[in-house]
Write a structure and sequence with these properties.
Chain lengths: 218, 145
């Protein structure tokens, strides 16, 4: 895929590295001259120096018909402008940006950005979960909060131990997708699979059911 | 926020243009709300200014609802950042359906960001060119038409 990375410092560097590993064609547009020099000396990729929220900079970088554009500048409004130019003027198929104000995530999606990532929102989510459930539950939301992946370690005193999956009543829209046993064996369970103490369960569910999973098992 | 029955105007950015517009529209009997992130910006408003000023982030949807954007007739985005103005104008027009949305852009290419929406761009650059044209060549756009 052809991917343009606009703005950003450490994030951009890290992203470029991982995209190149996956054999994507990466183009960089950055308004910090020193950072441009660093990036072009570190990676074998085209680097354009300029403010990516300016029309002529994007035009000169020739991002027409790119598969993806990622906007990583610190200003949310700049990221929106970059993504809208990419989509409306250069026919870029998919636009992704980060926002520092978590409230802008929904707003920017409504204004046409395909994927909006709010690191503040994600971090707050992780901290709340880490603080409230003492390592038993870890929820990760997938596909914009529609699906929750919950991780549960089965303790000695849980009710579900030695039961087969058929005999366990889970909340609705919930499925045990995978069991990790002895920290190494990966089991895709069937109805006849027994749950043992120490198992780690990876469970997919909708957001309403996620908080009920722990009590259904313990 | 109770604002009375006059036609309402929201202005974001109390810079030189924003403060002058606020004073002018308030004098013409509009109910004006001017919003700026910096408290000090409001010192530019004249003493006679009869509207409201709110220190807040203009892109915050709750702030905009608080100043009754849904009942507002005119919305003007004139902060110092073009990209911020584009975002503000799109919030007013596309999210809250404000009937008259105006936005000031330094960069004429920003027009491409609001194309197709019910937003009127105002470009000081083009206005300056027009004036120069008139002074130097005596050509007036109005007369040409």
């Amino acid at each position: 895929m052809r991917i343009a990375v606009a703005g950003g410092r450490t994030q951009a560097d890290f992203l470029i590295r991982s995209l190149l590993k996956k054999k994507h064609k990466v183009y960089v547009i950055n308004e910090d001259r020193d950072h441009c020099e660093y990036l072009s000396s570190t990676h074998e990729i085209p680097v354009f120096f300029g403010d990516p929220s300016k029309f002529f900079v994007l035009r000169d970088a020739k991002i027409d018909n790119f598969d993806v554009l990622v906007a990583l500048t610190h200003q949310d409004a700049d990221n929106l402008a970059i993504c809208q130019y990419a989509k409306n003027c250069f026919n870029v198929k998919k636009t992704i940006c980060t926002v520092s104000n978590p409230n802008n995530a929904e707003l920017f999606k409504e204004l046409g950005v395909n994927t909006v990532i709010s690191s503040t929102h994600k971090i707050a989510e992780y901290i709340t979960q880490a603080a409230s459930v003492e390592n038993i539950l870890q929820g990760i939301s997938l596909d914009s909060d529609k699906v929750i992946l919950t991780e549960i370690i089965i303790e000695e005193n849980f009710d579900c131990i030695n039961k087969t999956l058929i005999d366990i009543t889970l909340p609705k829209n919930t499925i045990i997708g995978c069991i990790i046993r002895n920290s190494q064996d990966m089991i895709i369970p069937t109805g006849k699979t027994k749950i043992l103490a120490g198992d780690k369960l990876l469970i997919l569910s909708d957001p309403e059911s996620a908080p009920k999973i722990e009590s259904a098992l313990s | 926020m109770k604002l009375g029955k006059k036609e309402r105007v929201i202005i974001i950015g109390c810079g030189r243009l924003g403060s002058k517009l606020a004073a002018m529209l308030s004098e013409k009997n509009y109910q004006v709300v001017v919003i700026d992130k910096k408290e000090s910006a409001f010192t530019k408003l004249p003493e006679s200014f009869g509207g409201f000023y709110v220190k807040a982030d203009g892109t915050d949807l709750d702030t905009l609802k608080y100043v009754d954007i849904e009942e507002t007739a005119i919305f003007i985005a004139c902060t110092e950042s073009d990209n911020m103005n584009s975002l503000l104008a799109q919030i007013a027009s596309r999210i809250f359906n404000v009937p008259n949305v105006y936005v000031r852009f330094e960069d004429v290419d920003k027009e491409k960001l609001i194309k197709g929406f019910n937003i009127q761009g105002i470009f000081p650059f083009n206005l300056t060119l027009d004036v120069f044209n008139e002074i130097i060549f005596g050509e007036n756009k109005e007369n040409e038409k």
